[in-house]
Specification:
368 residues; alpha/beta; Rossmann fold; seven-stranded mixed beta sheet; four-stranded parallel beta sheet; 10 helices; 15 strands; elongated; binds 6-O-phosphono-beta-D-fructofuranose
Length: 368
Protein backbone atom coordinates (compact mmCIF):
# COMPACT_ATOMS: atom_id res chain seq x y z
CA UNK A 1 0.00 0.00 0.00
CA UNK A 2 1.21 3.52 -0.82
CA UNK A 3 1.77 5.67 2.22
CA UNK A 4 2.34 9.25 3.30
CA UNK A 5 3.69 10.67 6.54
CA UNK A 6 0.59 12.41 7.96
CA UNK A 7 2.71 14.64 10.20
CA UNK A 8 4.17 16.26 7.06
CA UNK A 9 0.81 17.17 5.50
CA UNK A 10 0.22 20.93 5.44
CA UNK A 11 -1.80 21.68 2.36
CA UNK A 12 -4.30 19.66 0.35
CA UNK A 13 -6.41 20.20 -2.76
CA UNK A 14 -9.93 19.05 -3.58
CA UNK A 15 -11.54 18.76 -7.01
CA UNK A 16 -14.78 17.45 -8.48
CA UNK A 17 -14.83 15.79 -11.90
CA UNK A 18 -17.29 14.26 -14.36
CA UNK A 19 -21.04 14.85 -14.32
CA UNK A 20 -22.28 16.53 -11.15
CA UNK A 21 -24.25 14.54 -8.60
CA UNK A 22 -26.25 15.63 -5.54
CA UNK A 23 -24.03 15.34 -2.47
CA UNK A 24 -20.81 16.78 -3.92
CA UNK A 25 -20.97 19.83 -1.70
CA UNK A 26 -21.48 17.67 1.39
CA UNK A 27 -18.20 15.87 0.62
CA UNK A 28 -16.39 19.17 0.02
CA UNK A 29 -17.68 20.57 3.32
CA UNK A 30 -16.80 17.54 5.44
CA UNK A 31 -13.35 17.10 3.90
CA UNK A 32 -12.58 20.82 4.24
CA UNK A 33 -13.69 21.10 7.86
CA UNK A 34 -11.91 17.88 8.84
CA UNK A 35 -8.69 19.08 7.16
CA UNK A 36 -8.88 22.59 8.67
CA UNK A 37 -9.20 20.93 12.08
CA UNK A 38 -5.78 19.34 11.49
CA UNK A 39 -4.37 22.79 10.76
CA UNK A 40 -4.00 22.03 7.04
CA UNK A 41 -4.66 24.55 4.30
CA UNK A 42 -7.32 23.50 1.80
CA UNK A 43 -7.71 24.62 -1.81
CA UNK A 44 -10.43 23.82 -4.30
CA UNK A 45 -9.37 23.20 -7.87
CA UNK A 46 -12.16 24.57 -10.03
CA UNK A 47 -13.56 22.79 -13.09
CA UNK A 48 -11.94 19.41 -12.78
CA UNK A 49 -8.19 19.89 -13.17
CA UNK A 50 -8.27 23.36 -14.71
CA UNK A 51 -7.04 24.94 -11.47
CA UNK A 52 -3.82 22.96 -11.81
CA UNK A 53 -3.23 24.47 -15.24
CA UNK A 54 -4.24 28.02 -14.46
CA UNK A 55 -4.12 29.37 -10.90
CA UNK A 56 -7.09 31.65 -11.47
CA UNK A 57 -9.16 28.48 -11.10
CA UNK A 58 -7.88 27.81 -7.56
CA UNK A 59 -9.87 28.90 -4.52
CA UNK A 60 -8.97 28.67 -0.89
CA UNK A 61 -11.55 26.68 1.06
CA UNK A 62 -12.17 28.20 4.45
CA UNK A 63 -14.77 27.52 7.11
CA UNK A 64 -16.82 30.40 5.72
CA UNK A 65 -16.51 29.24 2.13
CA UNK A 66 -18.07 25.85 2.94
CA UNK A 67 -20.77 27.20 5.25
CA UNK A 68 -24.35 26.16 4.47
CA UNK A 69 -23.60 24.04 1.39
CA UNK A 70 -24.48 20.51 2.55
CA UNK A 71 -28.00 20.73 1.18
CA UNK A 72 -27.05 22.33 -2.15
CA UNK A 73 -27.04 20.40 -5.42
CA UNK A 74 -24.20 20.75 -7.93
CA UNK A 75 -20.68 21.60 -6.82
CA UNK A 76 -19.28 24.90 -5.61
CA UNK A 77 -16.06 23.95 -7.41
CA UNK A 78 -17.62 23.42 -10.82
CA UNK A 79 -16.88 20.29 -12.78
CA UNK A 80 -16.01 19.11 -16.26
CA UNK A 81 -16.37 15.86 -18.13
CA UNK A 82 -13.98 16.75 -20.90
CA UNK A 83 -10.96 18.24 -19.17
CA UNK A 84 -8.73 15.15 -19.01
CA UNK A 85 -5.17 16.59 -18.78
CA UNK A 86 -3.85 13.41 -20.45
CA UNK A 87 -6.05 14.05 -23.47
CA UNK A 88 -6.72 17.76 -23.49
CA UNK A 89 -8.26 19.61 -26.46
CA UNK A 90 -6.08 22.56 -27.54
CA UNK A 91 -6.05 24.82 -30.56
CA UNK A 92 -3.21 23.62 -32.80
CA UNK A 93 -1.97 24.37 -36.32
CA UNK A 94 -4.59 22.08 -37.79
CA UNK A 95 -7.49 23.04 -35.53
CA UNK A 96 -8.28 21.27 -32.26
CA UNK A 97 -5.59 18.78 -31.27
CA UNK A 98 -5.59 16.41 -28.30
CA UNK A 99 -2.48 16.91 -26.17
CA UNK A 100 -1.05 15.46 -22.97
CA UNK A 101 -0.54 18.33 -20.53
CA UNK A 102 -0.43 16.15 -17.42
CA UNK A 103 3.22 16.98 -16.67
CA UNK A 104 2.31 20.65 -16.41
CA UNK A 105 -0.45 19.78 -13.93
CA UNK A 106 1.92 17.63 -11.83
CA UNK A 107 4.58 20.37 -11.89
CA UNK A 108 2.05 22.97 -10.72
CA UNK A 109 0.74 20.60 -8.03
CA UNK A 110 4.30 20.42 -6.67
CA UNK A 111 5.00 24.15 -7.09
CA UNK A 112 1.85 24.91 -5.15
CA UNK A 113 3.17 22.57 -2.42
CA UNK A 114 0.08 20.39 -2.27
CA UNK A 115 0.67 17.24 -0.24
CA UNK A 116 -2.38 15.33 -1.49
CA UNK A 117 -5.41 15.63 -3.73
CA UNK A 118 -8.94 14.56 -2.78
CA UNK A 119 -10.63 13.82 -6.09
CA UNK A 120 -14.40 13.37 -6.06
CA UNK A 121 -15.61 11.68 -9.20
CA UNK A 122 -16.81 8.65 -11.10
CA UNK A 123 -14.85 6.04 -13.01
CA UNK A 124 -13.47 8.55 -15.55
CA UNK A 125 -12.09 10.77 -12.78
CA UNK A 126 -10.59 7.75 -11.03
CA UNK A 127 -8.93 6.65 -14.27
CA UNK A 128 -7.34 10.10 -14.54
CA UNK A 129 -6.40 9.89 -10.85
CA UNK A 130 -4.71 6.55 -11.48
CA UNK A 131 -2.61 8.07 -14.27
CA UNK A 132 -1.59 10.93 -11.96
CA UNK A 133 -0.69 8.42 -9.24
CA UNK A 134 1.79 6.88 -11.74
CA UNK A 135 3.37 10.35 -11.93
CA UNK A 136 3.72 10.52 -8.15
CA UNK A 137 0.67 12.56 -7.17
CA UNK A 138 -0.77 11.31 -3.82
CA UNK A 139 -4.54 10.91 -4.19
CA UNK A 140 -7.61 9.90 -2.22
CA UNK A 141 -10.67 9.15 -4.35
CA UNK A 142 -14.32 9.64 -3.40
CA UNK A 143 -16.93 7.75 -5.48
CA UNK A 144 -19.66 9.87 -7.01
CA UNK A 145 -22.24 9.18 -9.66
CA UNK A 146 -25.98 9.00 -10.09
CA UNK A 147 -25.33 5.88 -12.20
CA UNK A 148 -24.15 3.78 -9.20
CA UNK A 149 -21.86 1.91 -11.58
CA UNK A 150 -18.59 2.05 -9.63
CA UNK A 151 -17.09 -1.14 -8.35
CA UNK A 152 -15.78 -1.41 -4.81
CA UNK A 153 -18.50 0.61 -3.11
CA UNK A 154 -21.94 -0.62 -2.17
CA UNK A 155 -23.39 2.63 -3.44
CA UNK A 156 -22.20 5.98 -4.77
CA UNK A 157 -23.58 9.24 -3.43
CA UNK A 158 -26.00 10.98 -5.80
CA UNK A 159 -27.73 7.76 -6.72
CA UNK A 160 -30.38 7.89 -4.01
CA UNK A 161 -31.45 11.44 -4.96
CA UNK A 162 -31.58 10.56 -8.67
CA UNK A 163 -33.71 7.48 -7.94
CA UNK A 164 -36.09 9.66 -5.91
CA UNK A 165 -36.33 12.26 -8.70
CA UNK A 166 -36.97 9.60 -11.35
CA UNK A 167 -39.52 7.85 -9.11
CA UNK A 168 -41.42 11.12 -8.60
CA UNK A 169 -41.57 11.60 -12.37
CA UNK A 170 -42.78 8.03 -12.96
CA UNK A 171 -45.43 8.45 -10.24
CA UNK A 172 -46.75 11.52 -12.05
CA UNK A 173 -47.00 9.70 -15.36
CA UNK A 174 -49.46 7.09 -14.06
CA UNK A 175 -52.45 9.44 -13.95
CA UNK A 176 -51.91 10.99 -17.37
CA UNK A 177 -51.17 7.59 -18.95
CA UNK A 178 -54.33 6.13 -17.40
CA UNK A 179 -56.52 9.12 -18.32
CA UNK A 180 -55.48 8.90 -21.97
CA UNK A 181 -55.15 5.12 -22.05
CA UNK A 182 -51.64 5.51 -23.40
CA UNK A 183 -48.32 3.82 -23.08
CA UNK A 184 -45.72 6.17 -21.60
CA UNK A 185 -42.05 5.38 -22.12
CA UNK A 186 -39.60 7.12 -19.78
CA UNK A 187 -35.86 7.23 -20.41
CA UNK A 188 -33.64 7.56 -17.37
CA UNK A 189 -29.86 7.98 -17.15
CA UNK A 190 -27.39 5.40 -15.85
CA UNK A 191 -24.99 4.95 -18.76
CA UNK A 192 -24.21 1.25 -19.26
CA UNK A 193 -25.79 0.16 -15.97
CA UNK A 194 -29.46 -0.35 -15.14
CA UNK A 195 -29.44 0.61 -11.45
CA UNK A 196 -31.30 3.87 -11.86
CA UNK A 197 -33.92 2.38 -14.19
CA UNK A 198 -34.44 -0.72 -12.07
CA UNK A 199 -34.73 1.07 -8.74
CA UNK A 200 -36.91 3.95 -9.95
CA UNK A 201 -38.97 1.62 -12.14
CA UNK A 202 -39.72 -0.69 -9.23
CA UNK A 203 -40.37 2.15 -6.79
CA UNK A 204 -42.56 3.92 -9.37
CA UNK A 205 -44.54 0.75 -10.23
CA UNK A 206 -43.52 0.60 -13.89
CA UNK A 207 -44.95 -2.29 -15.91
CA UNK A 208 -41.81 -2.86 -17.95
CA UNK A 209 -38.22 -1.97 -17.09
CA UNK A 210 -35.50 -2.19 -19.72
CA UNK A 211 -31.89 -2.25 -18.61
CA UNK A 212 -28.57 -2.67 -20.46
CA UNK A 213 -27.87 -5.93 -18.62
CA UNK A 214 -30.88 -7.56 -20.37
CA UNK A 215 -31.03 -6.74 -24.09
CA UNK A 216 -34.75 -6.46 -24.74
CA UNK A 217 -37.16 -8.12 -27.12
CA UNK A 218 -39.78 -5.51 -27.96
CA UNK A 219 -42.34 -8.25 -28.62
CA UNK A 220 -42.02 -9.32 -24.96
CA UNK A 221 -42.66 -5.76 -23.82
CA UNK A 222 -45.76 -5.66 -26.05
CA UNK A 223 -46.95 -8.99 -24.57
CA UNK A 224 -47.00 -7.28 -21.18
CA UNK A 225 -49.01 -4.40 -22.62
CA UNK A 226 -51.48 -6.86 -24.22
CA UNK A 227 -51.88 -8.79 -20.98
CA UNK A 228 -52.67 -5.55 -19.15
CA UNK A 229 -55.20 -4.63 -21.85
CA UNK A 230 -56.83 -8.05 -21.41
CA UNK A 231 -57.08 -7.42 -17.68
CA UNK A 232 -58.80 -4.09 -18.32
CA UNK A 233 -55.74 -1.93 -17.67
CA UNK A 234 -55.58 0.26 -20.72
CA UNK A 235 -52.33 2.06 -19.95
CA UNK A 236 -48.75 1.04 -19.28
CA UNK A 237 -45.54 2.63 -18.08
CA UNK A 238 -42.22 1.51 -19.54
CA UNK A 239 -38.97 2.69 -17.93
CA UNK A 240 -35.87 2.45 -20.13
CA UNK A 241 -32.30 2.92 -19.04
CA UNK A 242 -30.52 5.14 -21.57
CA UNK A 243 -28.09 2.26 -22.13
CA UNK A 244 -30.81 -0.35 -22.79
CA UNK A 245 -30.76 -1.77 -26.30
CA UNK A 246 -32.76 -4.22 -28.40
CA UNK A 247 -31.59 -7.81 -28.58
CA UNK A 248 -31.27 -7.54 -32.33
CA UNK A 249 -29.73 -4.08 -32.38
CA UNK A 250 -27.05 -1.92 -30.79
CA UNK A 251 -26.70 0.87 -28.30
CA UNK A 252 -28.51 4.08 -29.31
CA UNK A 253 -26.30 7.16 -29.04
CA UNK A 254 -26.92 10.87 -29.49
CA UNK A 255 -23.35 11.83 -30.16
CA UNK A 256 -20.53 9.37 -30.76
CA UNK A 257 -17.56 11.72 -30.88
CA UNK A 258 -17.49 14.66 -28.54
CA UNK A 259 -14.07 16.28 -28.52
CA UNK A 260 -12.22 15.63 -25.28
CA UNK A 261 -14.74 13.11 -24.03
CA UNK A 262 -14.00 9.41 -23.74
CA UNK A 263 -17.59 8.19 -23.81
CA UNK A 264 -20.36 8.71 -26.35
CA UNK A 265 -23.42 10.66 -25.25
CA UNK A 266 -26.21 8.11 -24.88
CA UNK A 267 -29.88 8.84 -25.53
CA UNK A 268 -32.77 8.09 -27.82
CA UNK A 269 -33.80 4.58 -26.76
CA UNK A 270 -37.17 5.77 -25.37
CA UNK A 271 -38.07 7.25 -28.77
CA UNK A 272 -37.16 3.95 -30.43
CA UNK A 273 -39.25 1.96 -27.91
CA UNK A 274 -42.16 4.41 -28.28
CA UNK A 275 -42.24 3.96 -32.05
CA UNK A 276 -41.93 0.18 -31.88
CA UNK A 277 -44.70 -0.19 -29.27
CA UNK A 278 -47.02 2.08 -31.28
CA UNK A 279 -46.23 0.15 -34.47
CA UNK A 280 -46.78 -3.28 -32.94
CA UNK A 281 -49.72 -2.64 -30.62
CA UNK A 282 -51.38 0.29 -32.39
CA UNK A 283 -51.72 1.95 -28.99
CA UNK A 284 -51.16 5.64 -28.57
CA UNK A 285 -47.66 5.92 -27.10
CA UNK A 286 -45.57 8.84 -25.88
CA UNK A 287 -42.01 9.06 -24.64
CA UNK A 288 -40.00 11.44 -22.54
CA UNK A 289 -36.40 11.75 -21.46
CA UNK A 290 -35.79 12.80 -17.84
CA UNK A 291 -32.25 13.86 -18.68
CA UNK A 292 -30.26 16.15 -16.43
CA UNK A 293 -33.20 16.73 -14.11
CA UNK A 294 -31.96 13.55 -12.44
CA UNK A 295 -28.65 15.17 -11.57
CA UNK A 296 -30.15 18.31 -10.10
CA UNK A 297 -31.76 19.41 -6.89
CA UNK A 298 -31.00 19.13 -3.25
CA UNK A 299 -29.40 15.83 -2.15
CA UNK A 300 -31.55 13.42 -0.17
CA UNK A 301 -30.67 12.99 3.49
CA UNK A 302 -29.06 9.65 2.54
CA UNK A 303 -26.78 11.33 -0.02
CA UNK A 304 -25.96 14.22 2.33
CA UNK A 305 -24.97 11.80 5.05
CA UNK A 306 -23.00 9.54 2.70
CA UNK A 307 -21.24 12.61 1.25
CA UNK A 308 -20.33 13.84 4.73
CA UNK A 309 -19.11 10.35 5.72
CA UNK A 310 -17.00 10.04 2.56
CA UNK A 311 -15.52 13.54 2.98
CA UNK A 312 -14.54 12.88 6.60
CA UNK A 313 -13.23 9.40 5.69
CA UNK A 314 -10.98 10.90 3.00
CA UNK A 315 -9.20 13.00 5.63
CA UNK A 316 -9.18 10.13 8.13
CA UNK A 317 -7.47 8.00 5.45
CA UNK A 318 -4.71 10.61 5.07
CA UNK A 319 -4.33 10.75 8.85
CA UNK A 320 -3.80 6.98 8.80
CA UNK A 321 -1.01 7.58 6.28
CA UNK A 322 -2.79 5.86 3.37
CA UNK A 323 -2.86 7.25 -0.17
CA UNK A 324 -3.91 6.22 -3.67
CA UNK A 325 -7.08 4.60 -2.41
CA UNK A 326 -10.77 5.36 -2.79
CA UNK A 327 -13.13 5.55 0.18
CA UNK A 328 -16.04 3.15 -0.25
CA UNK A 329 -19.22 2.17 1.53
CA UNK A 330 -19.21 -1.39 2.84
CA UNK A 331 -22.18 -1.19 5.23
CA UNK A 332 -22.04 -0.41 8.04
CA UNK A 333 -18.51 0.95 7.57
CA UNK A 334 -16.63 3.19 5.17
CA UNK A 335 -13.48 1.38 4.05
CA UNK A 336 -10.81 2.06 1.41
CA UNK A 337 -9.80 0.18 -1.72
CA UNK A 338 -6.85 0.81 -4.06
CA UNK A 339 -7.74 3.13 -6.95
CA UNK A 340 -6.05 0.69 -9.33
CA UNK A 341 -8.76 -1.85 -8.43
CA UNK A 342 -11.61 0.62 -8.86
CA UNK A 343 -10.82 1.21 -12.52
CA UNK A 344 -10.75 -2.46 -13.47
CA UNK A 345 -14.39 -2.51 -14.50
CA UNK A 346 -17.87 -1.25 -13.85
CA UNK A 347 -20.65 -2.45 -11.57
CA UNK A 348 -23.58 -3.80 -13.56
CA UNK A 349 -26.85 -5.06 -12.12
CA UNK A 350 -26.31 -8.77 -11.34
CA UNK A 351 -29.01 -10.79 -13.06
CA UNK A 352 -29.61 -12.82 -9.93
CA UNK A 353 -29.87 -9.86 -7.56
CA UNK A 354 -32.77 -9.32 -5.24
CA UNK A 355 -34.29 -6.44 -7.22
CA UNK A 356 -34.39 -8.49 -10.42
CA UNK A 357 -36.19 -11.26 -8.49
CA UNK A 358 -38.61 -8.69 -7.07
CA UNK A 359 -39.37 -7.41 -10.58
CA UNK A 360 -40.08 -10.93 -11.79
CA UNK A 361 -42.29 -11.77 -8.79
CA UNK A 362 -44.24 -8.55 -9.39
CA UNK A 363 -44.79 -9.52 -13.01
CA UNK A 364 -42.81 -6.56 -14.32
CA UNK A 365 -41.56 -7.23 -17.83
CA UNK A 366 -37.79 -6.98 -18.18
CA UNK A 367 -38.09 -7.36 -21.93
CA UNK A 368 -36.86 -10.97 -21.96
O1 LIG B 1 -22.51 9.71 -15.51
C1 LIG B 1 -23.53 10.59 -15.21
C2 LIG B 1 -24.36 10.88 -16.44
O2 LIG B 1 -25.44 11.71 -16.02
C3 LIG B 1 -24.86 9.66 -17.18
O3 LIG B 1 -25.96 9.06 -16.55
C4 LIG B 1 -25.14 10.26 -18.53
O4 LIG B 1 -25.04 9.28 -19.54
C5 LIG B 1 -24.07 11.29 -18.70
O5 LIG B 1 -23.61 11.61 -17.41
C6 LIG B 1 -24.53 12.55 -19.39
O6 LIG B 1 -23.44 13.38 -19.59
P1 LIG B 1 -23.54 14.93 -19.92
O7 LIG B 1 -23.69 15.65 -18.64
O8 LIG B 1 -22.27 15.24 -20.58
O9 LIG B 1 -24.73 15.14 -20.81
Amino acid sequence: MDTIDPSKIKKIAINTGGGDAPGLNAVIRAATLAALRQGWEVYGIRHGYRGLLDSKYLIQLTKDRVRGITHLGGTILGTANKGDPFNFPMEGKNGIEMVDISDRAVENFRKLKFDALITIGGDGSHRIAHSFIQKGMPIIGVPKTIDNDMIGTDVTFGFDTAVTTATDAIDKLHSTAESHERVMVVEVMGRYAGWLALNSGLAGSAHAILIPEIPFDIEKVCEKIYSREAAGRHYSIVVCAEGAYPKNGGLIVQDENIIGRREPLLGGVAKYVEKEIARITGKETRSLVLGHLQRGGSPSSFDRLLGLRFGAAAIQTLLEGKINVMVALDPPIVKTIPIEDVIKGMKSVPLDCDSIHVARYLGVSLGD
